[in-house]
Amino acid sequence: MRVLMSVTSWDATLVQKYLQEDGFLVTAAKDGTAIFESLSLMCRPIVILETDLPDVDWANSIIKLRRQNRNMSILVLNRHKSAADQTKAFNLGADDVIAPDMDGREVTARIRAVALRRAGHSGVKINFGPMQMNVKDRRVYWGHQRVEMTPTQYNIFETICLAAPYAVSKDVIMAELYGVEEGSEPVAIHVFLSNIRSRLVDAGASRDVIETQRGRGYRLAKSVTSQAPMHRSDDLIDHMTEADFEHSEQVAKSA
Asked: Which CATH number fits domain 2-120+235-254: 3.40.640.10, 3.40.109.10, 2.40.50.840, 3.40.50.2300?
């Protein structure tokens, strides 16, 4: 999973360290403006905002982020442990609030739980018919056979699995792997996908577990996803009306 977060303080740097040690990919933004500039290619963003951004108001940023992409996970780093800021964050639509004095394992567990709920999953073990993915341990099994993958192969496969049943484009996979920083080296995604398919076959699966959709990208086959009914949280957020967003703006102004 890739996290996009503002890093303008030592507290945020510490959270970034926790995430990277636990296997997350992190894009560090120098301010709030950079957060918005980095969102374009992220499929299902996980965003962490500090409560004292140097250039934008964090509360209004939550509203703007929700309008820009209703599927994203939004967490707030409540640097000063303000009860008022915590309440305000939840009222504006943040998925969770973390504090700088939390244990690193709790921080990463909260972030992972939010992202999985947004993707329609209730825990770190995700079942797709005979396939199981453990996103905490970063392992994949086909039946009882472990599918051996390199870290990069796993990151690509996780991106496709968490987007199921939708397709993921090559550009989105690139952004997930390398972030959106300029100068990222181009990579032959189809070569990685071929190797991942071979690893799945070695474990007893079919090469067709990952489908290629011309002009759209890659997705898990319907034969797999149809065996794993999911409740997608974005179905709920899509029911938010413009009046709901206007109410959130009033909350931001009055708080």
From this structure: 3.40.50.2300
Structure tokens at 68: 């820009």
Cα distance between residue 2 and residue 27, in whole Å: 7
pLDDT tens digit sequence for 129-144: 899 999 999 999 999 9
* pTM over cut 0.70: yes
Question: Cβ–Cβ contacts within 10 Å for residue 163, how many?
Answer: 21
pLDDT in tens, 195-227: 999 999 999 999 899 999 888 899 999 888 775
The dotted CATH code for 125-225 is: 1.10.10.10
Tokens encoding 132 = 């199981």
**Alpha-carbon span 152 to 189, nearest angstrom:** 11
Residue 155: which of 74, 76, 43, 57 has the closest Cα? Answer: 43
